[in-house]
């Protein structure tokens, strides 16, 4: 079963779910969301988060596209034709 088919089935089941069951799911989801944001807020205060942000900054700088107007590096290509093989 493809992801699209699964999503369709889940959506159909959600529509026929009784209101009290939906509300319970939504409460559980909201509690998980609040916990996540609370933990994320605490994580952002750690040295690990600061180190990761520094890593991301360096990674982005290293892999950034060159500014427009910057010439592309010159690459030399060497062609070997069948007539050149075996000659020294």
Description:
The chain has 88 residues and is mainly α. It has one domain. 64% of the residues lie in helices and 0% in strands. The protein has three helices and no strands. The N and C termini lie far apart (61 Å). The model has no long low-confidence stretch (mean pLDDT 89).
In helices, the fraction of residues equals: 55-70%
Task: Provide the succession of SSEs.
Answer: HHH
Head-to-tail CA distance between termini: 61 Å
Largest sheet: none
Number of helices: 3
What features would you highlight for this structure?
flat; mainly alpha; 88 residues
Question: Could you give the topology of this structure?
Answer:
Elements: H1 3-16, H2 19-43, H3 47-63
In short, what is this structure?
The chain is mainly alpha-helical.
